[in-house]
Structure formats: structure tokens, C-alpha cells
Amino acid sequence: MTDTLTATELHERPSRSLGELAWMRFKQNKAAIGGCIMLALVVIFSFFGPLVIRHGYDQVFPSYVTVGPSLSPRPDPETLQGVAETAAKRARVELKSFTVENGTYTAVIGASTPIDPRAVRYFDRANEFDGTEVKETAPDQMSMTLTGHVAQEYFFFGTDNNGRDLLVRVMLGGQISIAVGVAASLVSLGIGVLYGATSGYLGGRVDNVMMRFVEILYSLPFIFLVVVLVVFFGRSITLIFIVIGAVQWLEMARIVRGQTLSLKRREFVAAAEALGLTDWQIIRRHIIPNTIGPVVVFVTSVVPQVMLLESFLSFLGLGVQAPLASWGTLIAEGAKNMQSAYWQLIFPSIFFVLTLFALNFIGDGLRDALDPKDR
Question: Would you say residue 353 lies in a domain?
């Protein structure tokens, strides 16, 4: 009776697909799940953060050049005093007094001749003041009281050497670096999988010719190829996509070819040939789907490699052009100012390293989950 119930229970138990089994094994890998969460947070920070921050990535704040990170609003009273003195000097008047209270400033200016009311514009030209107007004018017009709002700014990651908000530029760098990594990996995925599957399945002379072509491309120096393309077409993000993708697909093709050589001798391929399917139908319906496991794992390792390549090219000055920025260009700029402005190096490096670690953990988790021998 016990044996009968056990057999019935086993018969009624729902079967799980290979994808469900792989997902169950992947969920048990805490490092991989942590990598997914970390990668999701970095993506949200990079792509949705600029919607919250009102600063532009190319917006310059002349009064806040190379300002350190702070949670407090800027400017401070001493900075405001200096800005007011500069504005008064440009208006050719004397700053007699200056006070700030509850985000509103009051300035008393004077001169030896009647003051031109247009002196107000010199205060409003400063980024720190807004809505300046004349509150009171002396009967002899030798002095005038101005009032307006203090435009406070927050620079949580500090600013760069040009007075641009580093927080927004780190977000922009994440967008470009992640986009380059994903786009170039998709290019290598599309070309490499199709090329490798075709070469491995057809075999013979076609396979030899196709693989010799891959070896010729392997022999070309990567940096030399990039320099030549940059000289002829100029620096652009699209060019980086094409160059990196055109190099990374070579390794993808070799991996897929090796998988295809082992798959084309399997029984289901012989059955498909017996049914009269064409070579392209067999490659598309049977060969490529069965190479997805190793390919997915390889893609997760290609993305950080591509991001490192892009950062290396940007470090050499062959990457994106200013005012755009990637994590590579930000790290290169921060390395030059490491002693005087350490925050310019630390913040982009932190996000870059976190993203690489997250992608590596996800790749290790997928490798373990898709390996049927590792259960």
C-alpha cells in the first residue's frame, strides 16, 4: 500500500522544466541574488536618478569649482559674502552690509553718486542669488537696500574642475558604460552565435575557411584598429559599440562552434535530418537553442569585459567626447586630481567596481544553475 501511494504521488507530482530547475538553483545562490539586487540598484541610480536631480550633466557652477562632497546646502555665509562683494564691485558700488535669514538676503549698497537701479542685475547674474529687487532707496539715492532669495545648491558628490555636479556626471557615466557593455555584448551575441553555429554544423571546408577568417581577425591589434577607426570616423559612442562588438564576437563564435560540434552528432539532430529539415532550420530550431546555456554565461562575463575595454579606451582619450562622460573618463580625470580632489576618483570607481562584482556574481550563479552536473 505504501509503495502504491508513493508511486501515485510521484505520478501526480508536476514535472519541472529545465528553466524552472535552473531558476530554483539560481535562487539558492545568495551571491547571485545579491548581484542582481546590486545591479538593479545601479541601473535605477544611473537611468532614473537624473529625473530627480535638477542639475544638468553639462551645467557649470562657476562659484563651486572643485567643491568637496557635502550633505549641507551651498553656499555658506562666507561664500555669499564674497559673491555679494564681487557683484557690488562689478556694479561699481560699495557693499555696506550683507545679511542672510531664512533663505533671503538683504544687501545695502552705497556710492558717492546716485546709484543706477540697474545695479540689481549684477546681483541676479550670480548663480547664488535669485529674484533680486530694490526694497528701499535713500532720498538722495546715494544708498539702496536690495533683497532677494538665496539659490541653494546641493552637491552630494562634490564638483569637478569645471564646476559641474559630479553626482549627475556619475549617473551619466553609468548610462553610457552600461549601454556600451550591453549593446556591444548583444552585437557579439548576434554575430558570434550565428557564425559559430553555422561553421560548426556545416563543417568541412566551410568550417576551415570560416575559422581561418576568425584567426586572421584575432591577429589584428585591437588598439591599432581602434586608433585607425577613430582617425577616419572621429570619436563617438556608436563607433565604440561597433569596434568592441566586432572584436568580442570572435570568442563567442569559437565557443558556439565547439558546442555545435558536439550537438550535431546527437540523436535529435539526426531525427531532424531524417524529417527533411534544411540546414538553416536545424541550426535555428535545434543547434542555437541548445547552446543558450553556455552563451548566457559567457555574455555575463562579456559585459564587464566590454565595460573595462570602454574604460580603457576612454582612459587613453579614445572614448566618449566631452561634455559626455563614462565611468572610464571620470576615473581618468579623477586620477589626475587624486591628491587635491579625491572624490572625483572615489565615487565613479565605487560604482564601476560594484557593477563589475555584481555581473561576475550573476555570471557565476548562471554557470552553476545551467550546469546539469552541478546540482
Answer: yes
